[in-house]
């Protein structure tokens, strides 16, 4: 069974940093692009960032460009999101998602909450 | 950025009735459109990809149609487990974008 398990969320002050992880199992991780998608409290879904299967290509939403960095370790079957210069508007549940061909999301983790507040 | 607009924001439907959800793109996304279902406290779940292809295990009461800028998700006979929020997403252009969602509630 395919599984994605996020970790690393928590409470951080504005301007602070956090690194999220997503452990993948049940599929050949290195064959798939991956994404992070977030959802602010009571709001809709917002795509954050994507990375190709070999890590060679990355994409970011304008709202996080220059502050967040997506990466992956295919030897550890793990996806990461390094979040710097955090703002209150980054408060959300962060989901990692397995991308299918064409970058739609065929499997999702349960999410990890991030709260940016003083 | 392609803006995805879903309508209506809320749809009140009785169990057993048909539900029709709309999604409009600000420019053509070809057939690169997916639909997701999200229930309270849960992660989203893929329903439809490439406009009309059902995800593995999805009941045939769910169907998708459209192309270019106008898309529709139809649930032919609503079951109790179908009351949820539905999102469309385009993957034709970067950045990937979602619609604001349609909440399907019990009438």
What would you say about this model in short?
The complex is a heterodimer of chains A (118) and B (107). By secondary structure, chain A is mainly beta. Chain A is built from no helices and 11 strands.
Can you characterise this structure?
The complex is a heterodimer of chains A (118) and B (107). Chain A is 0% helix and 52% strand. With 118 residues, chain A is mainly β. In chain A, a hairpin with a 5-residue loop joins β9 (92-99) and β10 (105-108). The mean pLDDT of chain A is 97. Chain B is mainly β. Chain B is built from no helices and eleven strands. In chain B, a hairpin with a 2-residue loop joins β7 and β8 (70-75). The model of chain B has no long low-confidence stretch (mean pLDDT 97). The chains are: A mainly beta (118), B mainly beta (107). Chain A binds chain B through residues 35, 37, 44-47, 50, 59-62, 95, 100, 102-111, and chain B through 1, 32, 34, 36, 38, 42-46, 49-50, 55, 87, 89, 91, 94-101.
Task: Produce the secondary structure layout.
The complex is a heterodimer of chains A (118) and B (107).
Chain A: E1 3-7, E2 10-12, E3 18-25, E4 34-39, E5 45-51, E6 58-60, E7 68-73, E8 78-83, E9 92-99, E10 105-108, E11 112-116
Parallel strand pairs in A: 2-11
Antiparallel strand pairs in A: 1-3, 3-8, 4-5, 4-9, 5-6, 7-8, 9-10, 9-11
Chain B: E1 4-7, E2 10-13, E3 19-25, E4 33-38, E5 45-49, E6 53-54, E7 62-67, E8 70-75, E9 85-90, E10 97-98, E11 102-106
Parallel strand pairs in B: 2-11
Antiparallel strand pairs in B: 1-3, 3-8, 4-5, 4-9, 5-6, 7-8, 9-10, 9-11
């Amino acid at each position: 069974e395919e599984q994605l398990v996020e970790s690393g969320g928590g409470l951080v002050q504005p301007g602070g940093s956090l690194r999220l992880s997503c452990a993948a199992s049940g599929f050949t991780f290195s064959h798939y692009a991956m994404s992070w998608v977030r959802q602010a409290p009571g709001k809709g879904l917002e795509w954050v960032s994507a990375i190709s299967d070999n890590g060679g290509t990355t994409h970011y939403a304008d709202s996080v460009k220059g502050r967040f960095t997506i990466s992956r370790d295919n030897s550890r079957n793990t996806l990461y999101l390094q979040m710097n210069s955090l703002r209150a508007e980054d408060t959300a549940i962060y989901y990692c998602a397995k991308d299918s061909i064409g970058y739609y999301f065929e499997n999702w983790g349960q999410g990890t909450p991030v709260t940016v507040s003083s | 950025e392609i803006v995805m607009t879903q309508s209506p924001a809320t749809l009140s439907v009785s169990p057993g009735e048909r539900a029709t959800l709309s999604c409009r793109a600000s420019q053509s996304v070809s057939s690169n459109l997916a639909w997701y279902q999200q229930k309270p406290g849960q992660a989203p779940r893929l329903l439809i990809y490439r406009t009309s292809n059902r995800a593995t295990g999805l009941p045939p009461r769910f169907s998708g149609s459209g192309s270019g800028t106008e898309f529709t998700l139809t649930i032919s006979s609503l079951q109790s487990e179908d009351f949820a929020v539905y999102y469309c997403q385009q993957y034709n252009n970067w950045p990937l974008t979602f619609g604001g969602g349609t909440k399907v509630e019990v009438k």
